[in-house]
Amino acid sequence: MTADIATAPTPLTLDRLAALTAEVAEEVRRGLHEIRFDAENRWSVRLHADDHTDVWLISWTPDQSTRLHDHAGSLGALTVVAGELVERYWAGGLRERTLADGGGGRFPLGHVHDVVNASDAPAVSVHAYSPPLTAMHYYEVGGDGALRRTDSVLTTDPEPGAPTLDGVPAREGVR
Ligand SMILES: [Fe+2]
């Protein structure tokens, strides 16, 4: 499920977003940003926000994952800073790829994916969205093998319900 990225209401391209997450990942490697790990609730912090882009730092303890989702009207990109993540994404069926330290992904409009730390070590990743995230749609694959949207959440946080740096859930009760 991809769409023409020229229709995205942003002057940024997927290439620029990917470059941005790589730049911020380098800042994280240099120790410029605090990272916390929380095995109970996934942890994230917004590092940057402007009219066109928001950038998030997200940590993953073993087995932590998202659900199948898209980023509504936003393009996205991520760079893995430490550890290893597995991205499961929809391409007419569920496919899987491993994103190792330094690797990453680009998410055009309509990209549906789930991200999981399938390793036994913590992982850290930097994510960027443009325009800034406003909503996420969640999906499941039915018994017939078809992708079905199950719910939608209005949120500016790619980890709705996860604790922020202040320890306050960005959106209570929504996962
Ligand atoms: Fe995502």
From TrEMBL:
This is Cysteine dioxygenase family protein. Residues 150-175 are annotated as: Disordered. Belongs to the cysteine dioxygenase family. The keyword Iron applies. It holds the Pfam family CDO_I. Gene3D superfamilies: Jelly Rolls. CDD domains: cupin_CDO. One of its GO terms (molecular function) is dioxygenase activity. Coiled coil: none annotated. Keywords: Dioxygenase, Iron, Metal-binding, Oxidoreductase.
